[in-house]
Amino acid sequence: MSATPLNSFTQRATPHALALFRVVVGLLFASHGASSLFGVLGGAMGQGGTVPTGAWPGWYAAVIQLAGGLLVLFGLGTRAAALVSSGSMAYAYFSVHQGTALWPIQNGGEASAMFCWAFLLLFFTGPGAWALDRVFFGTTEPETAPAAEREPSAA
Predict the structure, then answer these.
(1) 31-66 as b/e, with b when 16 or more CB fall inside 10 Å?
(2) Which of 34, 106, 109, 118 could form a disulfide with 97 if both were Cys (CB 3.0 to 4.6 A apart)?
């Protein structure tokens, strides 16, 4: 069974699309941390200023956001950084937002939910193309073609 041109293109483009997704998600997440820690981009919670150093959980969340976002952005330890970042967003959702209302649209937790799931996806898929892990550690991601499209191995 031969692949259609669209399937062939999407299969070749998948690592690059995944890398672009990783870069955008990492940049957005790092921006949240930078705003809370350094008062840039509108400051903490859009109110200006910064989160007090060592304040639980805001300051620790901001450190995870900045460090995790930068690591994911550059593709360094992507899976570990994505797992920690996903967990921090799950914690944020359930500890800050869930008590207000059931649905993220009602409780203001859309960003926490989206980041949580985006990072969980990156944990399972890996960094895609353009990851610095490949430069420093020579790691390569396994082939991402669906099993049905792979050639059967000779037994």
Answers:
(1) bbbbbbbeeeeebbeeeeebbeeeeeebbebbbbbb
(2) 109
CA distance linking residue 137 with residue 102, whole number of Å: 43
Dist. CA 83–CA 60, nearest whole Å: 16
According to DSSP, residue 99 is labeled T
* Cα separation values, 86 from 1, 5, 75, 134, Å: 39, 35, 16, 23
Query: Cα–Cα distance between 71 and 75 in angstroms, integer?
Result: 6
How is residue 8 written in tokens? 């062939």
Q: How many Cβ atoms from other residues are within 10 Å of residue 75's Cβ?
A: 25
Verdict on whether the full-model pTM lies above 0.70 = yes
> Per this entry, what is the length of the chain?
155
Per-residue pLDDT of the chain (155 residues; tens, 9 = 90+): 557 888 999 999 999 999 999 999 999 999 999 999 999 999 887 888 999 999 999 999 999 999 999 999 999 999 999 999 999 999 999 999 999 999 999 999 999 999 999 999 999 999 999 999 888 887 655 444 444 454 555 54
Largest CA distance in the chain: 64
